Fold:
Amino acid sequence: QVQLEESGGGLVQTGGSVTLSCAASGRTISNYAMAWFRQAPGKEREFVAEISWDGGSTVYKHSVSGRFTISRDNAKNTVYLQMESLKFEDTAVYYCTARNVGHSVYDYWGQGTQVTVSS
Structure:
């Protein structure tokens, strides 16, 4: 089992920046691709970004590409999402998730952290 705990959310102004952290426990995440999803009020959960098990490959939702950066530190068992040039539409609960290498679905999810972007 892998437990994931997100932190770093809060209230930020339009154009501002915030970095989310996802601390994993229970087992090492070095065998897992890690991703961030988000869910805005009244909308379905959507993919934001994913990073490969070794950090060598990343994928982003088109609308956040160039503004968000996903990274990981396997020694600290932690994943990050650096968000810059935030827009009102980035307001959502952000979830961290882990996918075992070789699996096509995400195996573990955190509880989420709220990011609210105000104008």
In short: The mean pLDDT is 96. The longest strand covers residues 92-100. The CA atoms of residues 34 and 50 lie 6 Å apart. The chain is about 0% helix and 55% strand.
